[in-house]
Amino acid sequence: MGVAESLPETAVREVREGTGHDVEVAGLLDTCADARHIIAYSDGEVRRQSNVRSRARPIGGAPAVSDESPEVRWLPPEELEGVPMRHTQRLRVEHALHGSAPHLG
């Protein structure tokens, strides 16, 4: 998050940088912090990730790959099962699809 950015502004920027899509933030989804979620980037940076996740709607842009997103595409929920992802990411996707209240873990 940039020093002069709000959480919604950060979400909009991160989605644009990572996927090429422009979004409008529609609300808070949850917060996530998992000590097992360690990310090692190609530039040598290693960190434990914490997230504040927002619900958003696409409003423009076009799919574009990035260093963080080597593939960008829309999928219907029933096709997500076969997509390889970290266990923590799968938990977040499942909660976003089926959770009824914000998760604060």
Largest sheet features: 3 strands, mixed
Helix content: 10-25%
Strand neighbour order, sheet with most strands: 2-1-3
| Rg, Å, rounded | 14 Å
Looking at how many chains there are and whether they match, the oligomeric state comes to single chain
How would you classify the helix and strand content by structural class? alpha+beta
The number of helical runs is 2
Query: Unreliable stretches, pLDDT < 50, 5 or more residues?
Result: none
Write a concise synopsis of the structure shown.
The chain is an alpha+beta fold. 24% of the residues lie in helices and 36% in strands.
Provide a descriptive summary of the structure in words.
This protein has a domain at 7-72. It is 24% helix and 36% strand. The chain has helices at 7-19, 87-98; strands spanning 21-40, 46-61, 103-104. It has a three-stranded mixed sheet with strand order 2-1-3. A hairpin with a 5-residue loop joins strand 1 and strand 2 (46-61). The longest helix is centred in the first third of the chain and has 13 residues, at 7-19. The mean pLDDT is 86.
